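By convention, each integer encodes one residue's backbone shape. The lines below illustrate.
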Amino acid sequence: MEILRKCFSLPCILAALGTTSVAIANPSAPVLRVPAGTLVDSDLSRYPSVMMPGVQLSGQQRPGGVKGWQRINPKIQESLAAMAIAQGIKKRVDGKSVGYAVTIMTSSGAKATATGGYARKSPPDSNQRAMAVKDRITVASVSKPITAAAMLRVMASKGISLDESVSKYLPTDWALGSNFQTITIRELLSHTSGIRSGNGCNINFDGLKKCVADGIAPANKVYKYANENYALMRIILPRIYGGQPKTEEDYARQYEVIVNRMVLNSAGIAYATCKAPTSNPALSYESVTDNSDDTGAYFAGNYDWDNLKPGIDWGDMTLRCGSQGWNLSADELAQFMYTLNFTEKILPQSIVDQMRSENLGLFWRNFGEGLEGWGHGGWHPAKWNNGEINTWIFTFNNGITVGVVINSRYNGDYAVDIADAVREVMK
């Protein structure tokens, strides 16, 4: 992959940052901004006739001359590019939600952040505070690629094929409905299993048992996004790993430990769970005047951030985790996606490529003008809850990765706004 190639000169990056120079040695020093075309020293009569450097000079020549000298380190160039993208995101996103946090990472690990609004707002809630990139909150369906990575890593370590039957790893006392034994792990991962939600088939333990007992129609083995596909991995992953779960709680606990051990820990992420933090957590919000429409039609009352219902923290989803439920921050989402795509600490590149090419937890999106990539979004809409959450992980084809958390509706398309900020810097 060709990384950061289009805006990799210092003048280009500084132009995107809105300045013509930057103070690097002392981050707290003021930045001298000079309008383009200005000749700073046009009036030399203002200067004294003798000027001293103000710092000690050696008077020596550099051994080897100028060979090997670089004006600016590539890592610093990437850092400046990430900073410029963060500024562009903030310009486009501010004011469009109650609160947001975005972490931007480059292929070398350089990082920048953009935040705005509130993690908690008063009124209606106590302890008002700003949104931060370290705030853990439910990431909704962004849980799916995390679950997929854990499945693929454990299967690779055990030498298990993606075309293995799911039924082999289900609890032995679960009844198999018609044609269920034909479903493969690949089909769960790619949402082509034929499982259909409803009639008691859902993501909790008994609901998943009902999904299995209901069986499937072979004609339904086409792509249809269903949370139950990934919730079932909470059941089969511990058994593939070699555990001996017996109760609903056993399955959930072992799934949590395996994902932390095989994925999150490998990405440098501290132990995470599928329940909300207990101390002053970030909340999700809905306007008092929200019309509960989820079609995308504009209604001003949906975005009245001055009149909000009390926020929600989404509670404990441990027994429903897998397709949703993980509580992570924008920083940790970006760190997971960066580690998955640019290191082999979680999976070898060949398997990550397979995730992309077969939609195994990652989906392609094209933003036009050559900007595209893979990722996954998460959404718990206000229509079904007393608050809304929007999350997103994405790695663009220029090496930029983003982790996004928005704790309310968003007035617009946040993915397009962020892609536009990336394009502006990397064009």
